[in-house]
Amino acid sequence: MSRDSNYDHHISIFSPQGRLYQMEYAFKAANSGLTSVALRGKDSAAVVTQKKVPDRLMQASSVSRIFQITPKVGTVVTGSSTADAKALVQRARYESGQWTFDHGYSAPAKVVAKRMADLAQVNTQSSGMRPLACISLIISVDDEEGPSLFKVDCAGHYLPFFAAAAGPKEQEAVNFLEKKREEMPEYTSDEVIRTAITCLGSVLGSDFKGSELEVACVIGTNGKFTTLTEEEIEGHLNAIADDADA
To answer: From CA 5, how far away is CA 200, in angstroms rounded?
Structure first.
């Protein structure tokens, strides 16, 4: 048995090499779900993820990884545990509601991301706690800072991004998005959504139907976090196909 195997029994014990094995296992679980992509443009932000219904007898509308936190802030949560994702969202909604009650205005995406990251970091400090095995991509269009995109992981990191990805194909998606980095600040809402969909299709090597994707966006400072219908997603897929044929 490896000497290091003695150090993965508790989350609060460092190995001699300075590693927290339980956190590494949490990241592995968080990245073993479906691949998600998030992007922000000139006046909008969008999230796109795969949609897979595990049982043909299940109602498809009940299976979702995209959640609204406040009217203007939403997230896509990636990870192998749906229960962890829902626990994270429930707490985010509670914290956002508390902020609104205390300050008199809706919590910005930055505040939501920082608070959820702080709570995630606390879970790494005690052997009696377990980190949530999920990664969230939080989007909004802020009144002061414009389009916002934050990535919060299970260790408590939270950072702003122009574009981000999570899941098994994260690195491939990041490589694709890096090539588009210079144009992103000028993207319209349609370009933001279509670039995210194209990125997901490229890294997964497949063509999607509207029922195989979940897409949500926020457009403009007065815009609400909105989940697109299957028909609206099909419209974007058709536009992408037309552009490819042109």
So the answer is: 36
- Inter-residue contact 217 to 138 (CB < 8 Å): no
**Is 228 in contact with 216 (CB distance < 8 Å)?**
yes
Q: What is the pLDDT at residue 3? A: 53
pLDDT at 56: 84
Q: Per residue in 41-90, pLDDT tens? A: 999 999 999 998 888 888 888 889 999 999 999 999 998 888 899 999 99
pTM for the model stands at 0.91
Separation of alpha carbons 172 and 5, rounded Å = 31
One-character DSSP codes across the chain: --GGGGGSS-TT---TTS--HHHHHHHHHHTTS--EEEEE-SSEEEEEEE---S-TTS-GGG--SEEEEETTEEEEEESS-HHHHHHHHHHHHHHHHHHHHHHSSPPPHHHHHHHHHHHHHHTTS-TT----S-EEEEEEEETTTEEEEEEE-TTS-EEE-SEEEESTTHHHHHHHHHTTTTTGGG--HHHHHHHHHHHHHHHHT-PPPGGGEEEEEEESTTPPPEEPPHHHHHHHHHHHHHHHH-
Q: How many CA atoms lie within 13 A of 81 on its CB side?
A: 19
